[in-house]
Design brief:
This protein is α+β, with helices and mostly antiparallel strands. The protein folds into 2 domains: 114 residues, no CATH class; 67 residues, Nuclear Transport Factor 2, Chain: A (Roll), CATH 3.10.450. The protein is 53% helix and 17% strand. The protein has 8 helices and 3 strands, in the order αααααααβββα. A 3-stranded antiparallel sheet has the order 1-2-3. β2 and β3 form a beta hairpin. α3 crosses α4. It is elongated.
């Protein structure tokens, strides 16, 4: 991971650290590593989403463990150094700065630690389509609805989940949402 961290420019690494802190503070649902990776690649750095996601998980673990143990900035930096860390100097400086500025705000209550074992809903997009024909059937005229759910998993990684439904399936889906809305109005 340290080799991949060396590749990431300091400003992008700082943005990643800040997003992780915001996620741990429940201010944002997760870290969009795919979008950040694309911007890093556009800047000329060769890194893939999987590697960036691993780095995000490591940093998330580092910050949450530091918060759980109530580490000061100096204790965190000393721990990083004494662990035989091969982190590049710019990464340690960013971690020091971000932890010093925002680290103390991380809420590590027992409830917060036990929560978030499932993903968090971020966004939903849908579109209506019609399959006109295929190799095996000349005239389908088959309507369908494609739904894309954006969710943040417990570690904060944001992913899209897509699925298609027939019109009867979509009507059932819609009916269930209406039922949920009516129940929520009674709360």
């Amino acid at each position: 991971a340290a080799d991949k961290i060396r590749l990431i420019p300091q400003d992008f690494f700082a943005e990643l650290c800040e997003q992780i802190i915001q996620h741990l503070n429940h201010k944002i649902p997760g870290v969009n590593t795919a979008e950040l990776c694309q911007r890093i690649q556009t800047s000329g750095v060769e890194i893939n989403v999987g590697d960036l996601a691993k780095i995000a998980n490591i940093l998330s673990f580092l910050f949450s463990t530091a918060a759980r143990n109530n580490l000061s900035t100096e204790e965190l930096v000393t721990t990083l150094g004494s662990a035989g860390s091969t982190l590049p100097k710019h990464a340690v400086q960013v971690i020091r700065h971000v932890w010093n500025e925002q680290g103390k705000a991380i809420a590590v209550s027992e409830d917060a630690r036990n929560m978030a074992t499932v993903g968090q809903f971020v966004d939903m997009k849908w579109k209506l389509g019609v399959a006109m024909s295929s190799d095996t059937c000349r005239s389908l005229k088959y309507p369908y609805v494609t739904v894309t759910l954006t969710v943040a998993d417990p570690s904060g990684q944001i992913t899209d989940k897509s699925f298609e439904m027939t019109i009867p399936q979509f009507k059932n889906f819609f009916r269930q949402f209406k039922e949920m809305a009516s129940v929520l109005e009674t709360v």
